[in-house]
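Hey, quick one: can you model this chain's 3D structure?
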Amino acid sequence: MSPREVLNTYWHYDDFRPLQAEIIECVLAGRDTLALMPTGGGKSLCFQVPTMVKGGLCLVVTPLIALMKDQVENLRQRDILAAAIYTGMSRDQQRVALDNCQFGPYHFLYVSPERLESESFRKRLTELPICLIAVDEAHCISQWGYDFRPSYLHIADIRESLPEVPVLALTATATPAVADDIQERLHFREKNVLKKSFRRENLQYVVRKVGGPSTSPLKGDFSVSTTGDGREEKIAQIVHILSRVAGSAIVYVRNRKRAQEVASLLVANRISADFYHAGLSTQERTRKQEQWKTGQTRVMVCTNAFGMGIDKPDVRVVIHHDLPDSLETYYQEAGRAGRDGKTAYAVLLYHPSDRAKAKRRVSANYPPKEFVEKVYHCVCDFYQVGLGSGLDHSFALHIDELCQRMRLPVLQTYSALHLLDQAGYIRFEEEHETPPRVLINISAQALGQYALSHEQICLLDQLMRKYSGIFTDFQYIDDTEHELLVSLAQRHIITYIPRTVACTFILIQERQAEIYLPPRVYEERQAQYTERLRAMVEYAEQTQFCREQLLLGYFGELSAPPCGHCDVCRGRKG
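Sure thing. Here's the predicted structure for all 574 residues.
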């Protein structure tokens, strides 16, 4: 079938969106391609359609487990077989997924970049009929990007094993320097960038500057607020905006506590709202997300954990309560508004104190090197890892507990762990939900010596049949029988580790006596972070230039005309 026939057969569209057809042609011609497309521009079809035309298997590298699951389910609903391998799957589940991709009519395999760190996994990939490597969120491979992830660098190792397979790199946010770096790090055979304009004609950018006490009659408890930081006036602005702009909305905040506070205050002011952050269980996040997507909840107040891979077309306004770390982050989050092409608003609330807060973020994200080394040794001591040992040991790390026991500041500790990750001492994964695990402590023959209920016998029999290695290794399981599992654990028949939400800390070197943070990890990235924050503050404070023009210029579109509808352009008219 031709690309358009595939598009119509499986997705029921008559034609492609702008740039999609050109990207697909490059992929089918075997050319390495970097596609720069705005959020909501239809990136997934750019690798899904050519894969169905070729008939092979596409390896999709993405850091978003929720996106993997959503896309696998969406493809299956279109009668296209797809699999995903991610944290929490047992070895048997991973093996079955890989066998299906090797021997079955599967067309898509989604994996996290961390999975590529395993040499045995990379070797197994060479046995699969891979016809395309798609790299989502490709800016993560660039050390000049705003969200560098060292695990992305292993994609180049796959290319050495599969030299004839083309790469399609996709991102919604990349400056010209980052675009060059992506192509170099992915070993492009020749430079090839296809770029759609970052301009969103239906999206109106607005900065609302606040200062001084609010005069709006708000309900709710503001005792949590800090005097002089404009928080009450920001809430008043949010209530005002939501009363003027109908429809679904997102409010971004910087931390989990603030998300709950703001959602509570909106509800107190008769606005349907809920909160969302990474500390919630998968079940809670799924429920909240579904209620928002179906319109049961109008406003989602959230951290940056919300939004990646969420395609809700009718979001009418995205409000930033706090200043983002970069224009890349702001553009991506603001771009979740108005994907249906109708008028929508991206509103940034700015208080004079936000400049000083931005400056403090630099020291919070790049604490002194001595502190980074202290955190390294505190975590190793916490888990009793001696010098010269611990290689490949993995721990479920609860940051709050660690910081309380070791008397460490939470935010700087998070930052120190990320720096240690980038320096190659550890692998640190932010909080995610770990499925329950079970190990059977006694042999199958010895089970007959125990007086067990019929339900307990059935559960153990089910576990033994489903998980062949459960007598020697912990196995990730479905914990629908939680009470039965607890009862067996109390009798020491099994060891049961319930579902937890925690960070993952893995030593990828033996414990060292001293650590070294090279300039590329510390000084250079600190300077980049400082410059990105400076550009963000300048965007918020300036009143001379069209806001869309500034954003487009930042991404290399230097000749864009004024938008005519941002707050600066409207001020000129009035």
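One thing worth noting: Residues 222-227 have pLDDT under 50 and may be disordered.
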